[in-house]
Amino acid sequence: MLKLLRPAVTRALTPLARALVSRGVGPDAITALGTLGTVAAALFFYPRGQLFAGTLVITFFVLADLLDGVMARMTGPGSTWGAFLDSTLDRVGDAAIFSGLAVWLALEGERVQAGVALFCLVAGALVSYVKARAEGLGMTCDVGLAERPERLVVGLVSAGLSGLGVPYVLPAGLWLLAAASAVTIGQRLLHVRRQAVALPPRTLR
Fold first, then answer.
1. Which is nearest to 189 in space by CA: 105, 136, 120, 133?
2. Among residues 65, 90, 94, 142, which one is catalytic?
3. Rama region for 165: left / alpha / beta (φ>0; ψ in -120 to 50; rest)
4. 142 carries an active-site annotation
5. pTM for the complete prediction?
6. What are phi and psi of 202, to 5 degrees?
7. What is the pLDDT of residues 40-55, one digit of tens each?
8. What's the N-to-C CA distance of the chain in angstroms?
9. Are 181 and 117 in contact (CB under 8 A)?
10. What is the DSSP letter of 78?
11. SS3 breakdown of the chain: % helix, strand, coil, rounded to 5?
12. Average pLDDT score over the chain
């Protein structure tokens, strides 16, 4: 669903991207700004229990993840450094979001839910690592139930609705996200294993 929505979002962001590029702003700057804003908002609002306000601010900065891609396509072929920076800072932003939620849940005495939030943090990083490692070995790994956009949507929507007073939505969202991330890790491991066993043996360092 999110992949289907991406073209429409890209069209909406194109005028802003064109204006920024015309003023000499590069996509790497937008990537860094988006991550900085996400981290600051997640670690400021969420531990205070201001889940709805934090989610609104984080969502604004998360859009930079799409904006920098639009800008990169306008300025020519994407650079290796830009792709590396974007992927690395994505992990930083995700870690801040779930760390902020975990801190708030722990302060509220919800230790089990805080642990689930930390599991979502670790599992999300592992989902991305499995793909990166597989591609580094020359294999593909574009499979899985919960990729980063889906994980962000579930996490942010459940946090935002919880901030509006909707009961049980945050625990439900975190447990759903934890289960989906675990399934995704399994899917990717199996996918890579099928490719690996079909390859001729080689020495890896």
1. 133
2. 90
3. left
4. no
5. 0.89
6. -150, 160
7. 999 999 999 999 999 9
8. 39
9. no
10. P
11. 80, 0, 20
12. 89
